[in-house]
Amino acid sequence: MANTNNNKELQSRWLVGYCAPRSEKQVYDKLLKQGYTAYLPLAKSSRKWSDRIKIVEIPLFTSYIFVYLNNFEVYEALKSIPQLVRFVYSQGKFAEITEKEIESIKKFLTKTEGYQFSFEENQMVEVREGILKGKKGIITKLGKTKMQLRIEEFGWVVTAEILRTQAKSVE
């Protein structure tokens, strides 16, 4: 009779890796270079410097990465990538995430692509829906749920107020 426990240990599944602060992208690149299957969900966010506002990709889950591994590969990955601190445990076993959950994260990111979770004044945005759909404007005022835009078109300047969820960043 085959040892089912051994077979389970060699069965690959999506595990949750914990990374050193701000090293998720480095860990992801190293995992891929070493032939592992990994997933690092990234979301776009605006960052303000003194001279400009830039859209950057940041990890959706800070310090976490998903890696498709079996138990033996876990220890090999930990040895070869120092910024991969550990894998998350739950009830004495590796915390797993299902393929369905991975697909749900991917669908969420696709569906919300262009949505901005944080906006800055003087940032260029495009209206996603409503009568101003497709129009681009500069944010002049930000509220909790609404924003005011300055839209220039055909020599006219229009000030419009829209919901924050109706805007997407323009890169």
Cα distance spanning the termini: 60 Å
Give a quick account of the main beta sheet: strands, pairing sense, barrel closure.
5 strands, antiparallel
Helix content: 10-25%
What is the CA-based Rg, rounded? 22 Å
What are the salient characteristics of this protein?
alpha+beta; Alpha-Beta Plaits; 14 strands; SH3 type barrels; 171 residues
Provide a brief overview of the structure.
By secondary structure, the protein is an alpha+beta fold. The chain has two domains: 4-111, Alpha-Beta Plaits (2-Layer Sandwich), CATH 3.30.70; 124-169, SH3 type barrels. Helices cover 23% and strands 41% of the residues.
How would you describe the overall organization of this protein?
With 171 residues, the protein is α+β, with helices and mostly antiparallel strands. It has two domains: 108 residues, 2-Layer Sandwich (Alpha-Beta Plaits); 46 residues, SH3 type barrels (Roll). The chain is 23% helix and 41% strand. The strands form four sheets. Strands 1, 2, 5, 6 and 9 form a five-stranded antiparallel beta sheet that branches. The longest helix is centred in the middle third of the chain and has 13 residues. The chain is elongated and about 65 Å long. Keywords: Transcription, Transcription antitermination, Transcription regulation.
Question: What is the strand and helix layout of this fold?
Answer:
Layout: H1 4-9, E1 13-19, H2 24-33, E2 37-39, E3 42-48, E4 53-59, E5 64-69, H3 71-80, E6 84-87, E7 89-90, E8 93-94, E9 96-97, H4 99-111, E10 124-127, E11 136-142, E12 146-153, E13 156-163, E14 167-169
Antiparallel strand pairs: 1-5, 1-6, 1-9, 2-5, 3-4, 7-8, 10-11, 10-14, 11-12, 12-13
